[in-house]
């Protein structure tokens, strides 16, 4: 790995002050350090932010919970209030990686996980995300793991996070501190971005901004929820495709629905059409199937990932069915 | 005389070296505290074919700690291959950095040596190579079929007339199976610490066969074999990748010579894909012909694989088809395409693991066509003669393995019609496969040193055998305990040093039989000599302590040697087994779970039920990996592997493994060798993938003929004609 300077930040002021154009905040390091070993990430400076006090879960003004950015994925997913009120989030987070990685990985870091596209990982191959202007190797290469929605000419990579798929389904916002000392709130749906002409940017974060918290919306899917993760082995595998589904029912009618799909786009893919279709309808197999059809009709697969269209339909129906039957 | 029930062969004792591993005392290659060692990092090519036209080392050489940058320009001259295509063996030379030519993506093209590992790694990134790239590398298997050639006369085999056999058949199955490129990936990375002293090489190296490593190193450097010493005291798995000397060993020895300091080189996990061998993609075309009553009339097994552009390796996938069943017309062929991909080499039951997948799936397909139970179909075609050699099997309990396994597993509960056994969203299927694995036995030498301590004797066994995690230390100690009649606690086993008596090392499931018989021969020789010297009758029972006393000796050494008998050569010696599994397939998502497995094996004398059980568990796990997950993908435009770590090269996790029941049938086979030991290590993996694929068919009605069987493939697959969804 390339040499870099390493500094410890004991408070957010130190962290923000130390940040420069080629520095990275170091949380769990479960993704960043791997990428540095592969020479994909080449920071001059790492600022360790593990001493910062963003490790609590508190009640926020929307009646939801706020997750500290430096809390580990394990502590978050296993927290009693999360398990009780946001079981969909807990389920998604516990499906990710391994226990060891979840113990290290932080909530803020999870939002910044980079793609698993093999062209991104191998520095001798072209990749616009890693090296803007070098081209996309995947488009005419191996693209079984790639996007079917929202991609661009320059990039067809997907976001690999499980946690983020659940966050997209349940609704959230991200609080960040800016280098000038002010802070801002980014709606979760605006946090990650589609690749467009700038696939090097996974998110809409500005240089030096520090994630301090994730604010969850009011819990409405604590009864009917399911996170379906389709993968090649039972643990320690990224999703081929995943669906987070949450339902709120009243008198046999769907009053609220949260649906998002993972591993199909550059960001967690909110299933807006399916949500709109199901809202106010009965939770039936036929309605679930129709919702899935409506959504997947927009999919535009590549040579190797055609399976994702059929898999996506089946996964939407299954996740909704499981969510409904969970506590019917 | 002490009772030795608890420590002789057959006893389920704990590993004698287990505590050393748990406490971190056992030393693996890179852990030896060699003074003044420095670190080497290999540099890999980033094109599949071409020439290096310039090298710029200036930036790397400026870095602190960097001692040397070695490329083809300044490398030591080594022996190179005389032929354009050289068959690989366990003693093949490993020339490296001898020209500016690049033969495959990831080939070593340089080496940086530095004071620290980190300095070497960083500097390796800064060496700049310019290439003249060949625009037409051979990296596409499908498009290169016309380049296929027949490696040698033994690549083909024919019995009877395959055409006649097929025209004689009432039913024919003609299908093609594919197994992908796979990598060995032992947990312990390949590693070496090499040094030179007075013109002699010393190498701590993670190798399966230290004797052959000394040959390969001395031949490569053109020095006498006696001037090379290799130590591999503990090896953290090899799976075939450490049978031969790979180029990192030669690079470290070369660098040590050029710098005059001991050099450590550890291959990184990404380099374990590009520089330590692989299993190649095999396309296996099967044809099976049978009569309505299940009598086989024809079997043919035609394999198309690839090798590198300079080194030749043929995995004998068809081997199993030659000998497992009684069939009058049999055709086996192997063809290779030379490609700009690293040379393959033996991996995890080479031949059997991949060949049995094709054969045992094809047998299942034929049984389905014949509407016959797949176990009955196999039993009907059993043979006690190996038709490929016309030799009788020394022992063969395939039928018993199938029958007893069926009983244990509850095979009669199987629903014959696919998609009829359901539980919620799950489709449930049962699968079976027969297994055979060659049981080689090779000449082995050993030394025993007896030392009298009061009324007790402590014994040391020395041989250059290796323990690659299999339990060699333990079973050799048990053998010595049995033949010296002293408790295992008084036996010290020393292995993995090429200065010790020569053995064939570990590989091909020959280790246990060879090592134990070698140790037995040394112990027998010691006792025989001690008795003869005092005119004691050979059949008289005298303790080894008393023998030393009568000889007035405090210490006594003897060397013994064991080798295959005439009877061994006149028989076909194989271990046999059967795999059963129950698989639950999600009807929509394509995910599946292997719920339980029963493995029955007949492998001669079981030396230690604990280590033997572990061997089978390991084999089954590799079989599950082969079926479910393992594959290395070649990028079609660049020729590199896009799977580069354990995050994307999937091996099974604990959750993927089933409830496993392992059964060993009692079997006495004195033809195999005096102690009746047969190979066990690779029996476990053989045909596991077939039993899983067959169970998936029974569950879903889908024939999954291309490994690994992943959710995306299952979703896209169609059910076989005549099966209703």
Topology of this protein?
The complex is a heterodimer of chains A (328) and B (725).
Chain A: E1 5-8, H1 12-18, E2 23-26, H2 32-37, E3 45-48, E4 57-59, E5 65-68, H3 73-77, H4 80-85, H5 87-94, H6 99-104, H7 107-111, H8 118-121, H9 163-170, E6 172-177, E7 183-187, H10 188-191, E8 210-216, E9 224-230, E10 241-250, E11 253-262, E12 269-270, H11 272-278, H12 285-296, H13 307-326
Parallel strand pairs in A: 1-3, 2-3
Antiparallel strand pairs in A: 4-5, 5-8, 6-7, 6-8, 9-10, 10-11, 11-12
Helix pairs in contact in A: 5-9, 11-12, 12-13
Chain B: H1 18-22, E1 38-44, E2 50-56, H2 58-62, E3 66-71, E4 86-87, E5 101-102, E6 108-114, H3 117-126, E7 128-133, E8 157-159, H4 162-167, E9 171-179, E10 191-197, E11 200-205, H5 210-221, E12 228-231, H6 247-259, E13 263-266, H7 271-274, E14 282-290, E15 296-308, E16 311-312, H8 319-323, E17 330-339, H9 352-370, H10 374-380, E18 385-386, E19 391-392, H11 398-409, E20 422-423, E21 426-438, E22 444-453, E23 456-462, H12 472-484, E24 491-494, H13 511-533, H14 544-550, E25 555-562, H15 566-569, E26 574-586, E27 592-602, H16 609-628, E28 659-664, H17 688-700, H18 711-716
Parallel strand pairs in B: 1-13, 4-16, 11-12, 15-17, 23-24, 27-28
Antiparallel strand pairs in B: 1-6, 2-5, 2-7, 3-6, 8-17, 9-14, 10-11, 10-13, 14-15, 18-19, 20-21, 21-26, 22-23, 22-25, 26-27
Helix pairs in contact in B: 9-17, 12-13, 16-17
């Amino acid at each position: 790995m390339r040499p870099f300077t390493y500094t410890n930040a004991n408070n957010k002021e130190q962290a923000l002050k130390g940040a420069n154009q080629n520095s990275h905040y170091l949380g769990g390091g479960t993704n960043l350090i791997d990428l540095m070993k592969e020479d994909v990430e080449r920071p001059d400076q790492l600022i360790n932010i593990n001493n910062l006090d963003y490790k609590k879960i508190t009640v926020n003004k929307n009646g939801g919970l706020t997750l500290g950015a430096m809390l580990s994925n394990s502590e978050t997913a296993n927290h009693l209030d999360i398990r009780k009120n946001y079981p969909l989030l807990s389920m998604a987070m516990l499906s990710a990686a391994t226990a060891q990685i979840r113990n290290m990985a932080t909530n803020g870091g999870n939002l910044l996980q980079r793609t698993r596209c093999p062209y991104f990982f191998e520095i001798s191959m072209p990749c616009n995300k890693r090296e803007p202007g070098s081209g996309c190797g995947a488009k005419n290469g191996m693209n079984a793991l790639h996007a079917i929605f929202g991609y661009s000419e320059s990039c067809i990579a997907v976001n690999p996070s499980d946690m983020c798929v659940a966050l997209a389904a349940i609704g959230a916002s991200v609080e960040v501190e800016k280098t000038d000392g002010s802070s801002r709130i980014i709606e979760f749906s605006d946090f990650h971005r589609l690749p467009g002409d700038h696939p090097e940017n996974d998110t809409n974060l500005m240089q030096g901004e520090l994630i301090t918290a994730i604010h969850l919306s009011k819990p409405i899917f604590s009864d009917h929820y399911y996170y379906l993760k389709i993968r090649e082995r039972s643990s320690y595998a990224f999703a081929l495709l995943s669906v987070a589904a949450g339902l709120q029912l009243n008198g046999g009618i769907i009053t609220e629905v949260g649906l998002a799909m993972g591993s199909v786009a550059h960001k967690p893919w909110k299933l807006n059409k399916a949500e709109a279709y199901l809202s106010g309808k009965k939770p039936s197999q036929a309605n679930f199937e129709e919702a899935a059809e409506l959504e997947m009709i927009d999919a535009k697969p590549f040579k190797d990932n055609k399976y994702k269209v059929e898999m996506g339909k089946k996964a939407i129906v299954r996740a909704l069915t499981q969510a409904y039957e969970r506590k019917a | 005389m002490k009772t030795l029930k608890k420590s002789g062969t057959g006893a389920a004792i704990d590993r004698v070296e287990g505590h050393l591993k748990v406490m971190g005392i056992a030393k693996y290659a890179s852990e030896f505290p060699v003074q003044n060692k420095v670190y080497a990092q290999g540099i890999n090519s980033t094109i599949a074919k071409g020439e290096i036209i310039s090298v710029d080392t200036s930036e790397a050489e400026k870095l602190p700690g960097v001692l040397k940058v070695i490329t083809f320009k300044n490398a030591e001259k080594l022996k190179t291959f005389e032929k354009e295509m050289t068959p690989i063996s366990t003693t093949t030379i490993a020339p490296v950095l001898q020209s500016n030519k690049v033969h495959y993506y990831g080939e070593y093209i340089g080496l940086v040596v530095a004071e620290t590992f980190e300095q070497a790694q960083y500097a390796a990134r800064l060496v700049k190579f310019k290439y003249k790239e060949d625009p037409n590398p051979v990296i596409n298997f499908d498009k290169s079929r016309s380049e296929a050639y027949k490696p040698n006369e033994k690549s083909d085999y024919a019995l009877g007339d395959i055409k006649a056999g097929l025209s004689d058949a009432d039913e024919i199955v003609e299908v093609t199976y594919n197994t992908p490129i796979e990598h060995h990936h032992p947990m312990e990375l390949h590693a070496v610490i090499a040094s030179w002293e007075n013109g002699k090489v010393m190498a701590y190296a993670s190798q399966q066969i230290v004797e052959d490593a000394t040959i390969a190193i001395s031949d490569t450097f053109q020095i006498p074999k006696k001037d090379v010493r290799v130590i591999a005291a503990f090896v953290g798995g090899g799976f075939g990748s450490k049978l031969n000397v790979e180029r990192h060993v030669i690079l470290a020895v070369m660098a040590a010579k050029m710098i005059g300091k001991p050099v450590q080189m550890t291959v990184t996990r990404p380099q374990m894909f590009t520089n330590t061998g692989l299993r190649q993609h095999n396309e296996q075309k099967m044809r099976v012909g049978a009569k309505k009553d299940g009598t086989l009339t024809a079997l043919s097994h035609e394999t198309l694989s690839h090798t590198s552009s300079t080194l030749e390796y043929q995995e004998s996938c068809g081997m199993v088809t030659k000998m497992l069943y009684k069939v009058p017309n049999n055709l086996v062929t192997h063809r290779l395409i030379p490609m700009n991909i690293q040379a393959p080499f033996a991996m995890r039951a080479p031949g059997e693991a991949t060949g049995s997948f094709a054969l045992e799936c094809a047998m299942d397909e034929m049984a389905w066509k014949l509407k016959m139970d797949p176990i009955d179909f196999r039993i009907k075609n059993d043979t006690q003669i190996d038709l490929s050699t016309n030799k009788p099997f020394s022992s063969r309990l395939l039928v018993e393995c199938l029958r007893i396994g069926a009983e244990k597993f509850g095979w009669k509960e199987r629903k014959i019609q696919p998609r009829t056994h359901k539980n919620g969203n799950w489709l449930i299927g049962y699968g079976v496969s027969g297994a055979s694995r060659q049981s080689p036995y090779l000449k082995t030498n050993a030394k025993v040193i007896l030392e009298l301590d009061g009324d007790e004797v402590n014994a040391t066994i020395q041989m250059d055998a290796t323990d690659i995690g299999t339990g060699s230390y333990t079973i050799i100690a048990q053998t010595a305990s049995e033949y010296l009649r002293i408790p295992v606690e008084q036996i010290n086993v020393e292995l993995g040093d090429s200065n010790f008596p020569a053995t064939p090392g570990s590989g091909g499931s020959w280790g246990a039989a060879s090592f134990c018989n070698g140790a037995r021969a040394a112990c027998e020789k010691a006792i025989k000599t001690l008795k003869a010297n005092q005119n004691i009758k050979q059949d008289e029972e005298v303790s080894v302590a008393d023998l030393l006393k009568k000889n007035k000796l405090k210490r006594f050494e003897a060397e013994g040697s064991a080798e295959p008998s005439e009877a061994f050569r006149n028989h076909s010696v194989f271990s046999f087994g059967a795999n059963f599994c129950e698989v639950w397939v999600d009807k929509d998502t394509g995910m599946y779970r292997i719920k339980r497995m029963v493995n029955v094996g007949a492998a001669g004398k079981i030396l230690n039920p604990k280590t033997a059980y572990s061997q089978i568990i390991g084999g089954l796990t590799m079989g599950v990996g082969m079926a479910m997950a393992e594959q290395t993908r070649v990028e079609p435009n660049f020729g590199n592997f896009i799977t580069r770590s354990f995050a994307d090269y999937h091996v099974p996790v604990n959750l993927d493994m089933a409830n496993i029941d392992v059964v060993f049938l009692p079997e006495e086979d004195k033809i195999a060798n005096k102690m009746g030991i047969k190979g066990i290590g690779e029996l476990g993996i053989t045909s596991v993938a077939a039993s899983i694929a067959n169970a998936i068919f029974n569950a879903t009605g889908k024939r999954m003929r291309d490994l690994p069987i992943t959710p995306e493939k299952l979703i896209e697959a169609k059910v076989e004609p005549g099966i209703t969804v």
